[in-house]
Amino acid sequence: MLENAPFDPVATGRAVIRSTIAGSLATLDEAGNPFATLVTMATLPDGRPILSLSDLAVHTHNLKRDPRASLLLVAPGGEGGNPLAGARITLVGTFERSDDPHVAWRYALHQGKAASASALPGFHYYVMNVTGSHLVAGFGNIAQVPAEDLIQDLSDCEDLLAGEKMVVEHMNDDHADAIALYAIKLLNQPGGAWRITGCDPEGIDIATSKLRARLPFPTRATTVAEAGGYLKSFAKQARSLEQ
């Protein structure tokens, strides 16, 4: 967030969820006690977290018995220096297993090489159905963000959802130079092998092997044509800044 920008709990909460690749998962053990573990994650286009969990893990056994859990996510940069200075959000909800190929595709794209373990036997994907949240984004910036505000309603976005994979793969295969310009010129990120890891109505997620960033659309895109128009506009804008 900009230094003097007004605090927007919804935008901040969504940004934290989109920008993280790992979090602390708290499940309930047999005695009903909280059991916290470290997990890697990605998101669906609507912002719901995706986890890849081993059938052998204690947290998986806990979720199969009781799907209720919470997930603590910390925005990049909040782990160093004063760990309490960074934005973080605690999500509350339930998890359910998913065999949807699009879930697997989103997770693999977001995690990159780290997703290889998910291809091993005994690993399955779980999607979090968020019911509430608690956001802390600095001194005085604290909010309970309702799930219906945090997670996008995509009922009007069938065209974009159906075409997301085509958009992402086309950009990564044929326009890697433009994606790098998005990162460097529009988001003030360092150079690197940037790729798009997701496209949803509010923007695109981009990443290198170590960095994550989010480029929002000026207004909501519900179709492939609208998203493509924004991507072309971003490229034109970024190239003008090279002059």
From TrEMBL:
Signal peptide region: none
InterPro entries hit by this protein = DUF2470 (IPR019595), Haem_oxidase_HugZ-like_sf (IPR037119), Pyridox_Oxase_N (IPR011576), Split_barrel_FMN-bd (IPR012349)
Q: Which Pfam families match?
A: DUF2470, PNPOx_N
Record domain DUF2470: where: 167-227
Q: Which SUPFAM superfamilies match?
A: FMN-binding split barrel
Q: Which domain of life is it from?
A: Bacteria
Q: Which residues form the Pyridoxamine 5'-phosphate oxidase N-terminal domain?
A: 14-130
Any idea what this protein is called?
Answer: Heme iron utilization protein
